[in-house]
Amino acid sequence: MVSNENGSFQLLTPVTEVVAGHAITVKFRANVVDDVYLLLNNATGSTLVPPNVEGDTLSYTFPSSFKNKAGICSWNLVYNGLSHEEGQLNILPNNSYPVLETYLGPRSISAGNRDFSMLVIAPTDSYDNPLLDSTRIDYSFQFKEAIQNEFVYTKNLIGWERIFSPKESGQILVAASYDNVNSKEFVTKVYPSIPTDFRIIFERNHKFADGNQQIAFITDIIKDEFGNVITDGTMVTFNIESSENMILQTVGTTLNGIAKGKILHPNKEQRWNVTAYVIGAAQSNTLVVDFEKAIKSFDIEISKDSTTVFVKNMKSFMQQLVPDGIPITMIISKPNGELIETKTTTTRFGKGSFSLTKDFLIKGSYEIRIESAGITKTENLEIE
Amino acid sequence: MRLNRTIYQTLLIISFLALNALIIFGISAVWSYLNSGADRSKMLHLPEKLTASYLPKVQWNLENNEGRPIEEQTLNEIERDYVKSWQVKSIALETNNRYGISDYFTDSARVKLYDLIELNQSQNITIKTTSIKHNPKLEFYSADGKLAVLTDHNVEHYQETYLQDRLLHSQNSTNTYQILLLLEDGFWRVRHMVQMDAGKKKNIANTIQNLDESLLSKVKGVNYYPKDHAWDMFGSNFKDSIIYKDFKKIKDLGLNSIRIFVPYESFGKAEVDSVKLGQLSTTLDIAQKFNLKVIVTLFDFYGDYGIQDWTLTHRHAEQIVEALKNHEALLGWDLKNEPDLDFESRGKSNVLAWLRNTLEEIKEWDSEHPITIGWSNAKAAQNLSEEVDYVSFHYYLDPDNFTEVYSLLKTAVPDKPIVLQEYGYSSYSGFWNAYMGSERKQSSYFKKIQEGIESQGIPSIFWTLYDFDLVPNSVVGRLPWRKSKQKYFGLLDKNGNPKEVVKVIVDK
């Protein structure tokens, strides 16, 4: 019995534990009945409850926001600006009609028993209250033939477990259940682990450096350390180092573990060293590819008025006209070696030509050097 | 006729000139209008810098996190959103409005809040609440970084409950909660919140047990502002050379203490201006050179006291207290100057609640130095006398009644040291007091008060060192009779020359 000059109150319902959803009424015997409120506090917030007065008994019925919310609910009997009685109720979750909230992530992991998905289960009762700690949750996961049944106890509102990847790629199905309530099916994809080193071969139509055909580099089936074929679409970079120390690159993406990269033949005799990489993960052997000369020779002809230089008779390995687009370079210099100009053109119908303007070349003798397909020819030119 | 003609001529010329003047004025008005308002910095519509509006103290415990190790960035994001969830909830409960709830609570969690808001709204119940301190422990962080569980231990709250705008109840409480947060559309939203433990009232920090009363009892000092920058001594006005000279004068007058003021807003509110804080610390350094003790008065010119503002004022005080609490020159803290003057405009209970809670917070950061509240009169000084370490009051009334007023206070608060933190008399003699004031009157006022102080052994601090040229409107308002009076409370005149009253102080 708490009493003071203004009011005295006696708690008639010394309840400390209730189950969520059940009606809660707190009663007091009091000598004042006006303006006595019950202040309720829980994790959601606070409210004031007016009394139901019967004689000298005040009864306060908890509104649903408070009777349905599990956890501690504290109350103060407030009268005249003061708290005269106080107490707290431990409201327990209601175990009927539970709901399972299940989270699985990450949803894609890599094979090999190192990576994992995390299964988190937050079971709640029908009033959306988390169930008490140490609630047993069963869960199962299936991979290929194997189905495993496990369980976990909740702690800190949730139950959780790591689901490690097997060595094989594929997908794991996960489901949880509690008290005949089942979650839906969750899928996590097990992708192959990182690729291991592999080998490459090449395919080409002929061995000539004609600047026209394509050579293809092909990997064997690239696998991870557990023998899983790596994921389709993995990019493979083919790195080519030519005998002239040029770096060329082509790329391909894998399909069923095989990647193919294509590139044009060179237009002059060359040796290529080719290595393929899955960047940051794996590399191949180094392949040596030789290209032979396709164009053996050509002729230079200067027009009578010395205004045009023709490059003629460019023939490929079967005496066919060289393909269009073979680069031809003409270097004009003075006999003492002083460079005047460098001009470039490309073949068309097996020929190429350069025009020399009179305005540009003043009277005198010059040396003309033509370079194409790795062949160099020199000719003298007299301008009068 | 001739006269008439002259009159007409004069009128014509004058009206011509007047018309011209009007036209020129008109053109210039248009010209200046077209040249105003075109502030180039406004052209880009740059976003305003957001300042935090809710800053409870958050102390994380990251030990034994069972899931994935947390990244600092994610932890900051969780803290930001979690603290915001408390703020939107308090605002919602205060206004019974759903604003902002959906950003910080998941679908199923917000339904519970909406139900409560609806219930409170229907009964006209409003809850004003703030959390003061959080001690979250990270229990679990999921591998995919989308789910986290916290246990927020001993969350300190203050809450006022209103029914039809009538305050029914106010209380401090300390509760523990478990919270499940989900990362949804870039927000960490509260999914579950369960109260684990409640009702433990915060232990009201005890007053300092072994308070060195001998130090306090010897206090004989001055409320200090520099001559040319009264009520505005920090910032670009701050000159350590002036402070040095002034403190030397104070020492030469035979005084041993000063009381200075820290303005809340110009010190940067919750984000204390480090330059000004440095200047405050320099002021204490200089005081230390002259062996002067300093009472630092916080929250000068602060007048909000609103519950939603509490955490900001706490962060303000925390930064100042933490920066100065180990300073040798520090004698103690004065929480607020004359808060009783805000009782009427802000509500006595609001002011007292803020004072009590802020005082408790400061005690937590500094348990060494005594703390007081600078009440404007002896009657008001009985408020919160249990909570303060020493009681202080101001006295500007009839000196003959001083001893009586003091004894009344002493009887009401028998077991706390009492300090007279302000007293003084204006030597103003001018139009507004009919040339009735004089330095002699000031001197005799001091003499009488001094007699009382001597006989009762009261530690005292008078107002003030200098007469001031400028008194800001924010101090005593615009009224000239108040302002003029305020300018002549000094021991030294505007040129720094001693007034008659100096003899009273120095002799003693």
From TrEMBL, chain B:
Transmembrane segments: 12-34
Protein name: Cellulase family glycosylhydrolase
Highest taxon of the lineage: Bacteria
An example molecular function term from Gene Ontology annotations: hydrolase activity, hydrolyzing O-glycosyl compounds
GO biological process terms held by the UniProt record: carbohydrate metabolic process
Keywords: Glycosidase, Hydrolase, Membrane, Transmembrane, Transmembrane helix
Source organism of this protein record: Maribacter flavus
Taxon lineage: Bacteria, Pseudomonadati, Bacteroidota, Flavobacteriia, Flavobacteriales
Domain Glycoside hydrolase family 2 catalytic: residue ranges: 231-447
